[in-house]
C-alpha cells in the first residue's frame, strides 16, 4: 500500500504547488497537526478519507483527485 500513499502524497504536493501554498498553510487550514501532515506526506502514515476531504476543501479541488484511476467506477454502457 505504500505506493498508494506515495501517489496520494504526490497528488497533494502537486495541488499545493499549483496553488503556491505550503504544508504549513495546509496544516493551519485543515487542522491536521503539522508533524502528522509531514509523516503522511512522506508516506509513512496513511491519510484518512476525512483528511483528504478537508485537504480538497482547503485547496478548492475535488477529493476525486486523490483517487487513482484504477479505483474509480466507470459508467455502464
In CATH terms, the superfamily is: lambda repressor-like DNA-binding domains
What is the succession of H and E elements? HHHH
CATH architecture tag: Orthogonal Bundle
Overall pLDDT confidence: 91
Distance between the termini: 31 Å
Biggest β-sheet description: none
Q: Helical proportion? A: 55-70%
Shape: globular
Number of strands: 0
Task: Give unreliable regions as ranges.
Answer: none
**Number of structural units classed as domains:** 1
% residues in beta strands: under 5%
Rg calc: 13 Å
Predict the CATH topology: 434 Repressor (Amino-terminal Domain)
The number of helical runs is 4
Structural class by helix and strand composition: mainly alpha
Specify the CATH class.
Answer: Mainly Alpha
Describe the structure.
- The protein is built from four helices and no strands.
- It has a single domain (2-66), classed as lambda repressor-like DNA-binding domains (434 Repressor (Amino-terminal Domain), Orthogonal Bundle).
- It is mainly α.
- It is 57% helix and 0% strand.
Looking at this protein, list some descriptive labels.
77 residues, 434 Repressor (Amino-terminal Domain), 0% strand
Amino acid at each position: 500500500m505504500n505506493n498508494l500513499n506515495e501517489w496520494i502524497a504526490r497528488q497533494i504536493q502537486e495541488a499545493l504547488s499549483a496553488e503556491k501554498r505550503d504544508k504549513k498553510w495546509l496544516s493551519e487550514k485543515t487542522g491536521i497537526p503539522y508533524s502528522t501532515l509531514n509523516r503522511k506526506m512522506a508516506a509513512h502514515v496513511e491519510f484518512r478519507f476525512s483528511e483528504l476531504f478537508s485537504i480538497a476543501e482547503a485547496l478548492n479541488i475535488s477529493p476525486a483527485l486523490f483517487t487513482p484511476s484504477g479505483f474509480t467506477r466507470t459508467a455502464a454502457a
